[in-house]
Give the backbone structure.
Amino acid sequence: MKTIILLAILSSTVFQDTTVYDTPECWLWYVRDLPIEYRDKPVAMWTEHAVYQEGVQAINVFVSNPKNVPLSFGRYWELRVWNGSEWIPPRARFSPFIWRDDEFAMPKGMLLHCFRFPVGSYYHLPKGKYRVCKSFYARKEEMELSAEFEIK
């Protein structure tokens, strides 16, 4: 796992999310048994919507694990914006952007995970094409997953 440190002072205008998280340290909103339509497919990640409006504060990101092997993951997630030739970090609302990472392990496989990332609290998000990335581990094998979305 990576060691990352987050140093920030957030103003009172920061988005106040009233979501009750299953594991707030890693923005895990909830975990459910995997619906049948996701079985027999690869591990995948996607956003709830393909397009969000400017001013979006949080996005829901789903990860399906159709394997009978538990996934583990840390707090760390990353947002990138397409600049026309490569994926780069968007402009942060504060700096430096560092936090310590932990490892969270699920008790079993065959689960659907929903993360709720507070993208608008951390980044300036003008119109554009974005990608959220997060690492997962299955039996010590790392999987770097990503999900793309647009802000219009």
